[in-house]
Design brief:
Blueprint: E1 10-15, E2 22-27, E3 30-33, H1 34-38, H2 49-52, H3 56-72, H4 74-77, E4 81-83, E5 87-90, E6 98-101, H5 105-115, E7 132-134, E8 140-142, E9 147-148, E10 151-155, E11 158-161, E12 165-166, E13 169-175, H6 188-191, E14 192-199, E15 202-203, H7 204-210, H8 218-221, E16 224-226, E17 231-232, E18 240-241, E19 261-262, E20 265-270, E21 273-276, H9 287-295, E22 306-308, H10 323-326, E23 334-335, E24 341-342, E25 350-358, E26 364-366, E27 370-375
Parallel strand pairs: 6-22, 8-16, 9-27
Antiparallel strand pairs: 1-2, 1-5, 2-3, 3-4, 6-7, 10-11, 12-15, 13-14, 13-22, 14-16, 14-17, 18-19, 20-21, 20-25, 23-24, 25-26, 25-27
The chain binds ligand LGMQ2O6W, calcium ion and magnesium ion.
């Protein structure tokens, strides 16, 4: 079965007949109501944060208990299994801070070529540190939340709805264990609880006008969608890879101590048609390096912090994680099966991102999908 004992992602759900949101894990086509099944009030809250704050030893112990109950003591847990089609899924975490990186060499090179054709595609710092910026935690939304086309300045004296609304297919990392102000993060697996898929919606026209020289702002902050399920790191043990070779050798604080490259393949669908399969395994900077960089100045981590990889793009044309790359800034429209063509998103378009990774014993780990439909500008 997919979504079996090897995966068990965490989410927040409520029964459609009315009840306050609570924490569960997905098992097959059911949600396990953890507050009931484990008699633990930490799961009777509307986010994963209280549970995540317990730390990595508690995450491992809880996962083992759930696996054991589902695998050998099914009768005891039966009453706490709720069919997926009877629940509403919510944003799984209370997002503390939100950071977005820029870790794909291919994505960064493609954007450099398009936006800065007369310069080297990569800025001189790019191979020395994982470039990132702080986003807007309060506009991170759950999969399925409608996305309203943003309006803004698109040039000198020009205001209106974005005409270049885009996607960015990314992997997000959810922080469970905090650090104190002034302290650096320790081991990646002691701080990071799990992963989620992210669509960092981007208004390219607003972005292009506003972001020189201080970086992305309103072109990115109107909405960022995440999947309703957070896959624990333990479920990705078979997907771990050393990470792509790096040249030059990064500074010591960025040195990889454990393999945290991940063999994940994303899939981006536009109105039900697959338009891209971005390979996460090809990312240049790995998530342990992002964590080390994000805290090297003493900036603290908080439970619920979300940091995203940046757009996942591979070297192939059909491996690009944004429409600006897939259509080369609108100059090479995508042809859709219904005969229409797309450069950027139109009102009513639905974008869905899924991902899969190898699991134990030949199984496949399928991350929870992230989806959103574009609504007309207000
Ligand atoms: O290189 C640029 O001018 C612009 C880059 C981005 O928009 C990328 C971004 O937001 C980070 C990412 O998702 O990779
Ligand atoms: Ca992004
Ligand atoms: Mg965004």
């Amino acid at each position: 079965m997919s979504w079996g004992l090897e995966h068990l992602p965490y989410g927040v759900f409520s029964r459609q007949e009315g009840e306050s949101p609570r924490v569960g894990v997905r098992y097959g086509e059911h949600v396990v109501d953890l507050a009931g099944a484990l008699h633990d009030e930490v799961f009777a809250t509307g986010s994963l944060n209280a549970f995540m704050a317990r730390g990595s030893a508690a995450w491992q112990a809880t996962r083992a208990v759930i696996q054991n109950k589902l695998g050998t003591d099914r009768a005891a847990i039966e009453a706490h299994l709720i069919p997926l089609d009877r629940v509403t899924l919510h944003l799984p975490i209370e997002v503390a801070d939100y950071v977005d990186f820029y870790c794909s060499l291919e994505h960064a090179s493609n954007l450099g070529r398009m936006f800065r054709p007369d310069e080297e595609p990569l800025k001189p710092n790019w191979r020395h540190l994982p470039v990132g910026y702080h986003g807007r935690a309060g506009t991170v939304v759950a999969s399925g939340t409608p996305i309203t086309r943003p309006s803004g300045q698109r040039g000198a004296g020009v205001f209106g709805p974005s005409a270049k609304l885009d996607i960015e297919a990314e992997l997000g990392f959810v922080v469970g264990s905090p650090t104190a102000l002034g302290e650096r993060a320790g081991r990646f697996e002691d701080h990071v609880f799990g992963v989620t898929l992210v669509n960092d919606w981007s208004a390219r026209d607003i972005q292009a006008w506003e972001y020189v020289p201080l970086g992305p702002f309103l072109g990115k902050s109107f909405a960022t969608s995440v999947s309703p399920w957070v896959t624990p790191l333990a479920a990705l043990s078979q997907a771990r890879l050393p990470g792509r070779p790096q040249d030059p050798e990064p500074l010591d604080y960025l040195r990889r101590r454990e393999p945290w490259g991940l063999d994940l393949t994303l899939e981006v669908s536009l109105n039900g048609e697959v338009v891209s399969r971005p390979p996460y395994r090809d990312m240049y900077w790995t998530p342990d390096q992002m964590l080390a960089h994000m805290t090297v100045n003493g900036a603290r981590l908080r439970t619920g912090d979300l940091y995203a990889s940046g757009t996942v793009s591979g070297g192939g044309r059909d491996e690009r994680g944004s429409l600006i790359e897939l259509t080369w800034n609108g100059t090479e429209p995508l042809k859709l099966p219904d005969g229409s063509a797309r450069t950027f998103l139109e009102d009513g378009d639905t974008v869905t991102i899924t991902a899969s990774a190898p699991g134990p014993g030949g199984t496949v780990i399928t991350l929870g999908e992230v989806s959103g439909t574009i609504q007309p500008a207000r």
